[in-house]
Amino acid sequence: MGATIRDVARLAGVSHSTVSRVLNDKGVISEETKQRIYAAMEELKYVPNDFARSFASGSPHTIALVIDVDNASDYANNFFNNTVFGIETAAHRSADGIARLVAGKRIDGIVFPQSIVNPGFLQKLEELQFPSVILGRPEDVGLESDWVDINNTQAGAIAVRHLINNGYRRIAFVSDGDDKVFNQDRIEGYRRELTAEGIAPDESLVMHGEADHESGCVCAKKLLEAENRPDAIICSNDRMALGVLRTARAMGICVPQELGIVCCDNTVVTELARPDITSIDVDTFELGLQVAEILINRIENAAASIRQILLSTRIIERESTAKKRKGGGA
Q: What is the bridge-based pairing of β-strands 260-263 and 147-150?
């Protein structure tokens, strides 16, 4: 059992009400007394129960995300995805806040994005023996942590293999950031598959931009204006792919006969584009199921084996890579 406020008071030589006033920043307490209390908290590894404190101060700040599982269609849209992204953004900015939320015993388990993983945060969770699962593969794959991710190396390889099978040879890759682990993995798969097919990877064909339509346009223009331009481009997401498609059209380059396009998001946008865009598909529902299953198991059995899972991807073939069917390939 963890230390209590009374344990802190006893070690600091003050009343528990004095400790409470310091924690809630109320009343006039000498600096010397405050330092004794802080030292006692550090020695005992005492973490205040934020839930109780927030109600005592009249400002509870528990945040919950509730969905109706009988109306799944209400959440299968960009609105809900962006809502989750907003939560992730807040979590990224408040990693210390998450640690306090965990230590304050306000939740039973936590799923957090790979983007906020750092040694200090993981060490805190380990010290507290708190159930957690990382959404995404950490850069340090040797971490003793549960995580679930998409097999992005496989995704890059599948995209290249599909394009080569459809008559394309000079294949570029446009990503939304080389600092992201999933892009690093996709490009690694892209390079490996080119090499396996007897094609030397050309680093001038790998470009990095932002995750938006305009960046796709900029990258495509640079690639397609080159003397030895690519005949296919793999994009990190649907928005970049739309930028590539728009730029090719503006330059009079025919898709798919002169340029094949593949993207790594299988969204409704890729289906509605003209021509529609071949995509790497990911079972995000299965991703959620795996994360939840691991976390629940960890909550119920702290001694359970560490699980690290990569989920397979598949290609959804559409018109943007139908070179052979259009009569433009060998």
A: unpaired
- Residues 202-252 have pLDDT tens digits of 999 999 999 899 999 999 999 999 999 999 999 999 999 999 999 999 999
Phi/psi of residue 106, each to 5°? -95, -10
> 281-314 pLDDT, tens per residue?
988 778 877 888 888 888 788 888 999 999 999 9
Q: How many helices (H) does the chain have, and how many strands (E)?
A: 13, 10
Indicate the length of the chain as a whole number: 330
Report pLDDT for 138. Answer: 83
DSSP percent split of the chain into helix, strand, coil, nearest 5 = 50, 10, 40
Q: Using the 8-state DSSP alphabet, how is residue 179 labeled? A: T
DSSP-derived secondary structure for 258-273:
T-EEEES---HHHHHS
Selection from 153, 130, 129 nearest residue 141 by Cα: 153
Q: How far apart are CA 282 and CA 314, in angstroms?
A: 7
User: Of 107, 103, 124, 119, which Cα lies nearest the Cα of 3?
Assistant: 103
DSSP codes joined into one string, 282-297: --HHHHHHHHHHHHHH
Query: Cα–Cα distance between 143 and 248 in angstroms, integer?
Result: 43
User: Within 13 Å of residue 110, how many CA atoms lie on the same side as its CB?
Assistant: 27
Q: Which two tokens stand for residue 104?
A: 């304050």
Given a contact cutoff of 8 angstroms between Cβ atoms, the answer to whether 260 and 320 are in contact is yes
Classify strands 278-281 and 314-316 as parallel, antiparallel or unpaired: antiparallel
Tracing tokens 């802190």 back to the chain, one arrives at 8
Distance CA 256, CA 109 (A): 48
Distance CA 291, CA 309 (A): 9
Asked if the peptide bond before residue 230 counts as cis, ω within 30 degrees of 0, the response is: no
What is the rounded radius of gyration, in angstroms, for the C-alpha atoms of the chain? 26
- Residues 111-129 have a mean pLDDT of 75
The angle at the Cα of 102, spanning 66 to 12, to the nearest 5 degrees, equals 145
